[in-house]
Amino acid sequence: MQEKLQALKEDALKKVNQAENLKDLEAVRVEYLGKKGPITEVLRGMGKLSKEERPVIGELANTVRAEITRALELKKSTFEAEALNEQLRAEAIDVTLPGRPVSVGGAHLLTEIVTEIEDLFIGMGFDVKEGPEVETDYYNFEALNLPKDHPARDMQDSFYITEELLLRTHTSPVQARTMNEFKGNKSVKMICPGKVYRRDTDDATHSHQFTQVEGLYVDKNVRMSDLKGVLNQFAKQFFGEEREIRLRPSFFPFTEPSVEMDISCKVCQGKGCSVCKQTGWIEILGGGMVHPSVLEMAGYDPKEYSGFAFGMGPERIAMLKYGVDDIRHFYTNDQRFLKQYHNL
Amino acid sequence: MLVSINWLKNYVNLGGETPESLADKITKTGIEVEGITYVTDGLEDVVIGYVESCEKHPDADKLNLCQVNVGEETLQIVCGAPNVAAGQHVIVAKVGAVLPGNFKIKKAKLRGQASNGMICSLQELGVQEQYVPKDIADGIFVFDEAVKVGEEASHYLNLDDAILELGLTPNRSDALSMLGVAYEVGAILNEPVHLPDESYTTAPIEASELVTVKVEAKEDNPYYGAFIAKDVTIKKSPQWMRNFLIAAGIRPINNVVDITNYVLLEYGQPLHAFDFKKFESDEVVIRRAHEEETFVTLDDETRSLSTEHLVITNGKVPTALAGVMGGRDSEVSAETTTILLEAAYFAGKRVRQAVKDHQLRSESSTRFEKGVDPNRVKKAAYRALHLLETYAEATILSGVSEVDTLTYDEKEVVMTTDRINDRLGTTISDDEIAIILDKLAFNFDREDHMFTVHVPTRRQDITIFEDMLEEVARIYGYDNLAYTLPEGGQHAGKLTEAQQLRRAIKHYMEGAGLNEAITYSLTTEERAKQLVSPELKDIAQSAIRLKMPMSEEHSTLRLSILPEMLDVISYNQARKQKDLAFYELGSVFISSEQTVTRQPDETLRVSGALTGQWLSHLWQQEQKAVDFYVVKGILEGLFGRLNLKVSYQTAELEGMHPGRTAIVRLNDQTIGFLGQVHPTLAKGYDVKETYVFDLNVDAIIEAVDKAPNFNKIPRFPTITRDIALVVDETEAAGEIKATIEASAGRLLQSVTIFDLYQGEHLEAGKKSLAFSLLYLDPERTLTDEEVETSYQDVLEEVKIKHRALLRS
Lengths: 344, 808
Fold this sequence. Notes:
Oligomer: heterodimer
Mean pLDDT of chain A: 90
Catalytic activity (chain B): tRNA(Phe) + L-phenylalanine + ATP = L-phenylalanyl-tRNA(Phe) + AMP + diphosphate + H(+)
GO biological process, one term (chain B): phenylalanyl-tRNA aminoacylation
Strand content of chain B: 25-35%
EC number (chain B): 6.1.1.20
Low-confidence stretches of chain B: none
Cofactor (chain B): Mg(2+)
Structural class of chain B: alpha+beta
CATH class of the largest domain in chain B: Alpha Beta
Shape of chain A: rod-shaped
Keywords (chain B): Aminoacyl-tRNA synthetase, ATP-binding, Cytoplasm, Ligase, Magnesium, Metal-binding, Nucleotide-binding, Protein biosynthesis, RNA-binding, tRNA-binding
Distance between the termini of chain A: 84 Å
C-alpha cells in the first residue's frame, strides 16, 4: 500500500512537471486529486485496513495529497506569472509621448510682490488695511498736512472728479482713515497696498495708474530707530540678507523727520555701476516720523503718541528685483510677460 | 540747483574733499546730489597764447596764418575764426592735446601751410552752446584782461571745475543759493562760512531824491527797496563771474545783468535792474494789475494781466511782472547809464499765480514762490552795488527809497535733550546737541537740558520741534541711529477673513488655469458702460468721468473689468497668442447719483475672459475649445470650493450672446453673469469667440460660511436611481433638476445629469435627459420602498411641471 502511494506521488509530480499550461495542470489535478482519483480511492478503502496500518497509511495518503497539491499550486503560479508578464509586455506604451496638459494659471507679478510684502509685515505684527480709490480731498491731502493752497497739490497732477473728490494720488489717506477709525486712543500697526493714480503720461517709467504699499505704526514712544529697525528687517528679508540699507533725510509733508531708504546695489555690490547711477545705492522707499499735524488731525495727541510711516512702489521694486525694463508691461498683460513670473 | 565747486570754495573751506566725497556727504545729510559733472576731463596742453601776428592765408580767403607765442615757443597756427587778430590773448590747444569729444590735436598742413595747434572757441573746450556769450558764439575765445602767456588755460576759464546737481526737496529752498549751500556744507564739514564783500562808497546824493516808492499791495509786497546806481559802464562782466554763471547754467550777457544774476545765485535773492531813463518816472508804484491790462515782458511776449497779478509800475504802466520777469521797455542795454536796482520781497502765492497763468517760470520766480530770506533782501542789494561799483564803475547814491512792512524776526523752537532722545531712540548728550547747533550756525540759549533755538530766517522751513528734530538727526547722522524694533504692543498681525477669502478666490482661479491680469481702472466713456452686470446697472446712475482727463482713452472709471479685459485678449491675439484665459480681481465704481457728489461704491469683482483652445492633447485626439460650459465649470468649481449654492438662469444682456448667457444668483440675488460675448461687440474689440464671467466678490465673501459645523460622515450605504426623461427641447435641464431636488424628499443627497440625447430615436422637438439620484439616510439603512416612494413623487412632479415622461 505504501509503495503504491509512493508510486502515485512520483507519477503525479512527474506529470505536474510535464504540464505545459493551466489546462494540463487541471487535468493532472482531476486525475490524481479528483473525487474519482486514486488517492481518494485509497482513503475510501481505509476501513479495510488493520488498526495499526490505518493511521500510518492515512497520514501517508494525506502527505502525498498535500505534496501534489503544493506542486500543482507552485506550477500554477508560475504559469500565472508568465501569463501576467505576457500581458504587461503587450500593454507597454511610449512613455516619451507628452501627457495630457493641465492648464495652470498664475498670479500677476505685482500681486506676487504685494503678497510677499504683506506676509513680511504681517510677520512683524502689522495688519492689512484698505481704503477707497476715489478719495475725498480731505483724506488725500488735508488730513496729511497738505492744506488747500499747498504747492504740491496742483490740479495738474491729480485726477479730480469734483472739487472735493479725486482718484487718490497715494495710499496715505488710508493712514488718516485708520487713525480716525481708532479715535486717537489705540495703537495702529498696519500696511495698506492699493492702486493709486497720478496725472502722468504713460511711458517707460511713468504710469497714470500704479501700486503703492503704505505702512503706519502709531503708539506711545515710537522712535525713529524703530523705523530704521523695521525697514532693515524688511529690506533684508525681501532683498536678501547681504543687502545693506541706508537712510537719507528727505521731505514729505506728512512726516517729520522724513527719510528716503536706499539699499546697496546688488549688481555691483555697492561699488557703483550704471544700474545705481554710480552711487552704489538704489532708492527703495520713503518714510519718516508721522508729522504732529497729521496725528493731531486724526485725534492723536502728538505729545503722547508718535509714529512712523513709509511707502513704496511695487512696480519700481519689481523693476529692480527682476529687471523689468518698462512699467507699461505691468498693465498691457502680455501673456508672455505674465507667465515669466508664475514660478514665484 | 547747480553748484560749482570752485565757486563754493569762496565761502567755505572744503579741505581735502573731492567732488565725490563731498557729494556723498551732502546726500547723506539731507540734500540729494543727483549728479556730478566735470566741465572737462582735465585738459592738458591747452595754454594761453599771444597772437603776435595774423595774416591772410596765401591760398585760402577764410583762413589766417597766425604766429602764436605760447611761452616757450612761438607756433604757426592756421585759424579760420573771423574774430582772430594780432595782439589777442587766446587759448591754444597744442599738438598732443585732447579736447572734449576725444578730439586729438595733431600737426597738420592746411592748404600747404603748417599748422601746429588750434586756437579754441569755448564750445571746443566743452562749454555748452547755450551758455556761450552771444558776442563770441561764432568765434574763438579772446581774453579781455592781461593773462600770463604759456599758463594752462583751464583755471582761467574754470574748465577744471566740477558741478554738483542738487535735487532739492520743496522744504530746502534755502539751498537755492550759494550761501545756503555754503551753510549746509559748513555744517557737514564743521567749517565757518565766509560772507561776501557788501561794502561800497556812496555819492552824497540820496536815492530818495530821485525816486519814491509806493506799495499799494502790502500783503503781496511787504518790502520794496529802490537803489540808484549812476554813470554805469555797460560792458562784459569779469571772466570769473562769467565762468561761474556758465557753471550755474546761466548765459552771461553784460556786467549789469550778470551782476543781478550772480547775486541771485549767491544770495538766493532775485534783483532787478531797470534802465532808469527808460523807466520814465520818479515814482515806483507796486500794485495789482488791472483787469485786461497788457504789458510786454523781456522775452517780447505781450502778457495780458488780471487783478490776480502783481506789477511794478512807473505810476502809469507796468514795467515788470513782480518777481517773474521785467519789461522790455525798461530793459538795461548798451546805452544805459543810470540803474534803478530793485530789491524786494514778493509773496510766494502772488508769484505762483503769475507763473501758472503765464506759463512763465524763471530763476527769480522759483525763489519767490518758495520764499526768500527776509534778512538777505537788502544785503543782496548791497552786494550787487558793491559789484556794480567794482565792475561797472558805477556811482552809488546814498540810502534807499523803500517801503518796509516785512517781519525780520527769527522763530524760536524749544527742545529738550530727553525729548530728542525719546523720539530718535538715541543717547545724544547736551553738549553734542550744542555742537550740532553750532555746526548749523544756529543761535541758541541753553538752560540745563533745554535749548531755545533762534532759527535763522534763511531756514524758513523750520518752525516746530519736529523740524529741529530732523536737523539734529541729520547732522548727528541717520547712519548713527540704532536699529531697534518697536517695544510696545504685542499685536499679532493677520489678514481679515475677507482678505483671506480674496486670496483663496485668486488661488482657485489660478489653479483653474487662469492668468491674473491687472488692467487700468480708467477707460473710455463708451467702454465704461459696456458689459456691466445687471444688478449694478440697476444702481448705477452714471459713469464717473474725470474733470480733466489726459486722454479720452482714460477718462472714465470702469463699471466692469470686462471691457479692458477684452482689450487684453485683443492685444494678445494680435501677437499670435491664441489660447488665452485671464482673470482680474479689482474694484468697479458705482455711483447712485446722476451728478456725482459723493464717493461711489467700490465693489470688488472677479472677472474673466477666455478664448481659443481650453485643452489640446493632440496625439490622443483630445481637443476642447473654450465654450460656455468650460467657463461655467470654472464657476461651479469656485462655488463648490466655497460651499455656496448658486443658480444659473438664462438671460439676455446687452453685449452678450442672447442664447449663451446666464446670470448667476446667490441667495435670491443676482451676483454676476457668464456667457459668450456678442459677436458684434467681439468684432468691435477685434477678438475671436470669447467667453467671459463677472462676479461680485463682496457678495460671495459675505455669503461664505466662515465657521462650518461638523457633519458626521455617513455610516450607511447609499442607493442610486437613474431616471431618463423625455421633454420638449426648450425645457431647461437646470429647472428640471431643481424640480427633482424639491420633490424627492429629505433622503435625496444629490442629482447628477449624466446624459442628454436628441435625435432619430426621439420625436422631433424633444430631448431626453438622464438624471442620477443619490439617496442616503444618515440614521439607518435605506429601504427600497422609501426610495421607490421618492422616485414616484419625482416622476409625478416633473410630469406636472415639465410635461416630462419616463423614456421607454
